[in-house]
Amino acid sequence: MIELQSYLEGAWITGKGSKREFVNPTSGETLGILRSGGIDATAAINFSREIGGATLKQMNFAQRGAMLNAIADALISNVGEYEDIARRNSGNTSRDAAVDIQGGIGTLKYYARLGKKLGDTQYILEDGEDLLTKAGDFKLRHFWASRPGVAICINAFNFPSWGLWEKAAVALLAGVPVIAKPASSTAWLSEQMVRDVIASGAAGEGVLSLLCGSADGLLEEVKPFDHIAFTGSAETGRIIKAHQSVLSHSPRLNIEADSVNAAILGESSEAGGATFDLLLREATNALSIKAGQLCTNIRRILVPAKNAQTFADALAAKIDTITCGDPADESVRLGPLVNRAQQQAALEGMQQITSEAKTLRGGNIPAQVVGADAAKGAFVEPTLFLAGKAGDLSAVHDVEIFGPAITILPYQSMDDAIALAARGGGSLAVSVWCDDVAEAACLAGGLAPYHGRVLCIDPEIGKGHTGHAIVMPQGVHGGPGRAGGGEELGGLRGLRFYMQRTAIQGQTGIFERLGAVSANVQL
Ligand code: NAP
């Protein structure tokens, strides 16, 4: 049986406390264990801050970018092994695994290129200056410098690769050492990846540490210049926000939480037309890729009332073509959820929705699956609900079913669609599917205050887009309100979390000298 280790203070160590098991969700078989406790959190965090911090301080942006590139290359050589772990421990089909593994590697490569562009500097000087007095040469500009703390990166179970690397890439490029804490149920993939990166020598001394097991003790050690980048449920987010160290020391805290995201079919899109079909295809993906376990996934589809039943019938027919079962079987599009606890949570969520909407498909554990025993695995049927008067309902807007389930909601007008989408209380992503660009632009403007990202699809770009759920490193990721109120990625914008932006006031000579050692950027 595998026992996962942590990489702290530059060495692999085994925890000593109570053990937690992780499983193969297809068969229910136990794959391995990890133990919490027995870790000197003070020493671990000091090591990262001091040794990792010193390593990064000696490097400029270009060198840190080269390090990210080397990390990505170390991972690329082992992708086959990662896919195998993702299949066994996360129940991923090869398509699911690619979203997580290639997504992580792609984000590292993107930030590596950004580092190269920033060049041999360590600071950022924002373009543009304000003259503060009428006479003389007294000016103000904004200057970014790396903060001297550590980045504690706590991740959710559904992205053991992407979640790890999208956070580490930004922190390391910004010059801040990382302690990554993956979710226990899928930490195996994160552990193997960090093991390969450390063995390759790609990461400088102390810059990358890993804690497998509970985060107990780590948050107690947080100091004012540290950072906590958290991804997970709103409930855990609230616990972290209220932690005594966070309240006392005000480290930077970013929360990426859950979300009941929507997709909207525009009034300009006819039933059976190209845009209607594109949304059908996207919804089918949302019900199968990673078994619906993506934070950005479509949970609600808002359809003009006149077309709601037609769309629901067409999606139900698509659902009938989805094969559920062992992700190793090539015919399978929908694997299991990550474990029985998540299966139970998804079924409970579905139960709540049934009080408000009609179940058109699914809602249960499948009677049979391909290549596995449905009673032993963590399978859930692809599920479709159709609601009536969406404005009067609450569960359909409030309950995040973290699995393969979608509710179709009819709407009456554009304003109604925007108001219904906003009932999610703040979401990570919304998509609009319109034939008419003017309609899409109006929707995008109206939806923006409630969402971190708006994807606009029409037939012209329909075949080439990146998808509703996929987060691109060029754009900010994170949503307001319920989604946590955080912001990650977004190219250079992501570095801001790990760098102090300081308003510098002085004469032109000051800015000439700072400009000589900084990357000048326009934001
Ligand atoms: P979770 O139970 O909240 O756990 C998230 C992480 O927090 C895990 O690493 C967990 O460790 C850790 N944790 C738990 N209690 C903690 C505490 N008291 N102090 C510090 N860390 C603690 O969430 P999950 O079940 O893994 O993930 C599913 C949720 O994440 C969904 O709601 C989904 O929407 C959300 N999510 C959001 C995003 C986003 O970008 N916004 C992305 C992915 C997922 P252990 O596993 O060891 O308990």
What attributes characterize this protein structure?
523 residues; alpha/beta; 7-stranded mixed sheet; 5-stranded mixed sheet; 15 helices; 24 strands; 22% strand; globular; binds NADP nicotinamide-adenine-dinucleotide phosphate
Structural description of this entry:
Helices cover 35% and strands 22% of the residues. The protein has 523 residues and is an alpha/beta fold. The chain has a 7-stranded mixed sheet with strand order 16-17-18-15-14-19-20, with helices on both faces. Strands 6, 7, 8, 23 and 24 form a 5-stranded mixed sheet that branches. Strands 11-10-9-12-13 form a 5-stranded parallel sheet, with helices on both faces. Strand 10 (178-181), helix 6 and strand 11 (208-210) form a beta-alpha-beta unit. The longest helix has 25 residues, at 94-118. The chain is globular and about 65 Å long. The model has no long low-confidence stretch (mean pLDDT 95). Bound molecules: NADP nicotinamide-adenine-dinucleotide phosphate. NADP nicotinamide-adenine-dinucleotide phosphate binds next to helix 7.
